[in-house]
Amino acid sequence: MKPIFGRGPSLSLRLFFAVVLSASLMLADSRLNTFSHVRYFLNSFVAPIQYAADLPRVLFDGLYERMQSHKTLLESNQRLKQEVLTLRSDLILFNQYKEENQRLRKLLGSSFVRDERKMVTEVMAVDTSPYTHQVVIDKGRTDGVYEGQPVINEKGIVGQVTFVAAHNSRVLLLIDANSAIPVQDLRNDIRVIASGNGQSEYIQLEHIPSSTDIEEGDLLASSGLGGIYPEGYPVARVSKVDKDTRREFAVIEATPVVDFDRLRYLLLVWPNEDRQQKARQSLTDTLDKEAQRGQ
Questions:
Q1: pTM of the predicted model, to two decimals?
Q2: pLDDT at 286 over 60
């Protein structure tokens, strides 16, 4: 009895025929370009499918590049902000150092800073209560500072040292109510005493007869009398003269040449001994003359 379904060609035979057919078709296509239309049709049909299949990858790559670019821009922006901040801080310090350098040059280059020994000092603290006007400086006994030493800046006399510690000192400002300085009017060499009154705007001239020749605008400089302040340093300019014949003394005010609200760098001065000796001798002669007149 024959089976209903007969056995077909063997697997090996079928594989052989497939290989031969494929080789024949490839040879025919390469020589005769037989399947060019078929390939064109298949490519046209498959291309949209390939594009659709590749679209997620393209979108993902584009998104990834955008994210990376955005991240890079953010990092670059943050870095630039930090650099700008650093440069601005450096610029601020540079401007500050430049101003300090200019102040120091101006201080050391003042026309009235003479051949006396001098030392630059910096203000550490300020005490400006209604009754006290003093500053603390960063030089002390180890630097040779002594009590009664005159202190100036590039404009004129600031005050004198009243207390000395090892590494700092206290300076009594010219405007303090306990401060007084012998001055002379540079216009006519009249010598008077100028006293502080606790006001930074002006100092006052004490016990000046109404007949004394002092006018507004006159420049007052240290006279050198008393042996503390060297002679010739600017002190103040007369800003008010009130003379009343009914009063024995005139009311005279003078505006200090130093801006006491902006003290930063000062100069400690060691006065020339010869000049100091002459000043002491001048003071002695003046007192002797006054004593003789009294007799």
A1: 0.61
A2: no
